[in-house]
Amino acid sequence: MNTQRSEILAEIERRRTDLSVGLLKIYNYYRIFVGFALLITFEQNLFSTQLGALDQQLFWWVAVIYTGINILGTVLTWIVPGQWSSRQLLIFGWIVFDASMLTAMMYSSGGIGSGIAALILITVVTGAILVTGRLATLTAAAASIVVLYEEFYLAISQTTFSYDFFQAGVFGAIYFSASLSIQSLSKRIRQNDIRALTQAVELADLERLNRQIIQRMRTGIIVVDPNDVVRMHNQSARALIGTGADDDFQKLPAALQQVLTAWREDSSRRAPPFRVSPATPEIRANFSAVRNEDTQGDVTIFLEDRGEVQQQAQQLKLAELGRLSASIAHEVRNPLGAISHAAQLLNESEELEPADARLTNIIINHCNRMNGVVENVLEMSRRKTPEPMRVNLKQHIEEFVGAFLQSRPEAQLEIHVEPDDTEIRVDPRQLNQALTNLVDNGIRYSEENQQGHRVLLAGGMDTASQRPYLNVIDYGQGVDPEQEPNLFQPFNTTANEGTGLGLYLSRELCESNQAQLSYAPHDNGGSCFRILFAHPDRITA
Fold first, then answer.
1. Closest by Cα among 78, 80, 79 to 26
2. The whole model's pTM is what?
3. 183 part of a folded domain
């Protein structure tokens, strides 16, 4: 807001400068005109005047110098850049010079009775317009002082000419009144300009914001006039009706035009879903009159992709199905535990035949596997909203490795994070869950490839996106390219004892923390699972 106000003040100052330069040029022409008018009036013999009544030679020379300097000043105003000719002190100097020269001509003409004091008033008024602040008041003060001093000097230096201090004082008061009035008026005009520009900027920003919101909306929006000519639309509307970005969009498609015509005839009628063409999605149109429910005037058309609505309904069904699955998993857990316990007791019997013992082991192994599936399903159903916090990546990985080695002391985990001060914003508990799944998988694949229990945890800052990342790299044989498209799908596994939910859960945990989990083959032939975190300073709620 401060930046916006400074820009407005700068625009006001620019306008004032332009106005001052223009007015100064006009004033220069006026000064030249006054100089020539005084000289011509002084030299003419048609009628008598008081000009030069006290000292003709002084009046003539002052008028010539005044006119010549004014001509020179006008030329310089055209040559010198505007920012110099609009300087406050320079203009103040010109005003004081004018008042002084006119006062000198007034003295040589016998004092204030010559009428030249009225010309000084125009100079003071012009100064109040061109000069702001205290300098404007100082201009009126300078003019009043020189006029009073002129009458005082006339009184002590000349005995044949009458002086009039009262009239000089009246003119001084007029100078001050005119200057203060002009200053007050200029201040009001400036404040009105600031208010008008502020409102214009706010309206422009609001209009730009509205356009951005409309353009980014998934709902298609079209505004038409009473003749059904398109006045405004967004990109979603083009996509829904199948109009290309370069196509002229002035008339509505026939299908939409037909629905709009029916609504104009009966606004209570709800339009059925329709397709603009076989290649476009099925859409539903809603209409709203722009002004006072006038259905024959401007109308706003809202277009919705019926497929997306159905998809949202499907997602709600899936959410309910997930809760139902969690309930079923909870109910399965109890009999599954009983089966596993009974198999274990049976396996401990001394009279059990070897073949039967092998069957009981199969029962126990599959019970454990199913219990893992149940645990994962329950974990998905009761997963909490993440509570992200800013942590140092290297320090957090070291803490995770220390805790992991307590349960898996045989693991060989390497850590490589550069730079050391790399920070991430994430829920540490959920990140540890995702890392546990990834590291467990990495150890298993490294072991299958006769590479021990080795896993590398490498992190840092991605140079392209300027976002922190963490790579979990194993030393296995990598993922079969045919399996890559289904790698993060639930219940997708190549292990005999796997549940197929580890990678799926890891990706869901990362996405809930605004991070991205992806896979890429590593140079050593193994697998690299990269977690690309959101920028710690730009993460959104």
1. 78
2. 0.40
3. yes
